[in-house]
Design a protein that fits this description.
globular; 7-stranded mixed β-sheet; disordered N terminus; single chain; 9-stranded mixed β-sheet; alpha/beta
Length: about 450
């Protein structure tokens, strides 16, 4: 309504500057208050999205497209999260991603066991199928800019605290450090009022802390971006490598993933986080011949959640992406689930608030967003959780896992499930054969898997 337009005119006129391709808005008043609501039709709700990665950007885009007043808080507009950067084929179409943000189309995967047995994966892929490799600063920047183009208002700043209202109608107050004010030497403490908060601020989420969402186990992901000679880069043109073995990680895998003009080399662990550099050195050693002559461009590290938080919705605050714990075990995938959860959360809010006309309740958000999410993806997370507990617990399991990856049926089911984000229903006869093959693989692996160096 008129009040809404006047309020945003006031905020936008006080400070605006460009950072990259994004218009960054800094609210100058010490508190930008929520106008009093005399009727449910007077104005739409105001939503804060804390975090400008795939989860936050996709939530903000969905809300802004519907005309809901939406603010994105992002502390680092050029953030480059340490991440393999792999995205499934379904994400390209579902989120309308342009080809230029995909560095490489991987159609071959090489699995390397603890004994350095190599298995080539990808024989079942159709000509149009691939795994997209991205750089997070490129992907995140594109999604955030697109949300802004639809009307989401960006604030380059750090959320420092959140005041919780005493009833289910009063606004939340977000206090934040406005980085644009800091650049000009002004006092940078700011506050804004919101009806709903979406926490998309990663594993160390401030929103999760404010809502007492509960703790979870987390992994440390460590990655080096390495520029390698052109002849070696040619080898990785459409190929990615995954290494398993307790030398490179006691509970995960290590990777060499191709990017535009370099490779990302990394690993991760939950159970032995203090030794992450030792495991990184091990993957560098395992892949030494293929990385020879390489130059490190960048070193990155970041926490990655291992399971959903105990509470993902409290009051009118909801968590999405890494903040909610939506990273799969076994594969460690989180980009698609981040973007999807942000969009699903926003779509649920639009539905239960009648496109932003009403203030939602905790029960409504849980019955829509959380129930829909769990119904759609619980089986996927459970299957991958079981696979990790079976195959990543020791080198015998890892050796057996790599051998099984040679089976064409396993490749087809695995790729179909990954590329299209569904738990693929296989053939009962093939499933029975797979059960016997799995037992055989474990028996054979006992004979030649290297002894585990680490025991936890």
């Amino acid at each position: 309504g008129t009040n809404q337009k006047l309020r945003w005119s006031k905020v936008c006129s006080q400070s605006s500057s460009y950072m990259g391709n994004s218009l960054v808005i800094a609210a100058r008043p010490s508190v930008v208050r929520r106008a009093a609501r005399s009727s449910s039709l007077e104005m739409k709700i105001r939503v804060a999205v804390v975090g400008g990665g795939p989860a936050g950007s996709c939530a903000a885009e969905t809300l802004a497209q519907a005309g809901v007043e939406t603010v994105i808080f992002e502390r680092k507009m050029d953030n480059a999260k340490p991440c393999g950067g792999a995205i499934p084929l379904c994400m390209v179409d579902e989120f309308n991603l342009p080809p230029e943000i995909i560095d490489r189309k991987v159609r071959k995967m090489k699995m390397i066991s603890p004994s350095n047995r190599e298995v080539d994966v990808g024989r079942t892929l159709k000509p149009h199928e691939y795994i997209g490799m991205t750089r997070r600063e490129v992907l995140d920047g594109y999604l955030r800019d697109r949300a802004i183009s639809y009307g989401a208002k960006p604030i380059n700043g750090l959320v420092t605290s959140i005041d919780i209202p005493k009833n289910d109608k009063d606004p939340y107050v977000i206090h934040y450090a406005d980085y644009e004010s800091s650049k000009s030497g002004e006092e940078n403490s700011r506050s804004m009022e919101f009806d709903v908060i979406i926490g998309a601020d990663g594993a160390n989420s401030r929103v999760a802390k404010a809502m007492d969402a509960g703790d979870y186990q987390y992994a440390i992901a460590f990655q080096e971006r390495i520029k390698i000679p052109d002849d070696k880069m040619k080898y990785y043109e459409d190929l990615a490598e995954m290494y398993v073995g307790d030398d490179v990680s006691p509970d995960f895998y290590a990777w060499v993933f191709p990017k535009y003009d370099h490779v990302g080399v990394g690993t991760g662990t939950v159970v032995d986080r203090p030794s992450i550099k030792k495991y990184q050195n091990a993957i560098r050693e395992r892949a030494a011949a293929k990385l020879a002559g390489g130059k490190i461009l960048k070193i990155e590290a970041h926490p990655i959640p291992e399971h959903p938080r105990p509470r993902r919705v409290v009051g009118r605050m909801a968590l999405v992406g890494d903040a909610a714990g939506y990273v799969t075990k076994c594969s460690g995938e989180g980009i698609y689930f981040a973007a999807k959860s942000g969009r699903m959360c926003a779509e649920s809010l639009l539905k239960i608030t009648k496109n932003g006309e009403n203030i939602p309740t905790e029960k409504q958000i849980k019955n829509s967003y959380i129930k829909d999410w769990d119904r759609k993806y619980w089986a996927t997370y459970k299957v991958l959780d079981i696979l990790q507990s079976v195959f990543y617990r020791d080198n015998v399991g890892r050796e057996a896992f790599v051998e099984l990856c040679e089976d064409e049926y396993v490749q087809k089911v695995t790729f179909d499930s990954y590329l299209y984000k569904t738990v693929t229903k296989g053939s009962p006869l093939e499933d029975i054969k797979l059960l016997f093959n799995t037992a055989g693989s474990f028996l054979r692996a006992n004979a030649f898997a290297p002894a585990d160096v680490n025991k936890f």
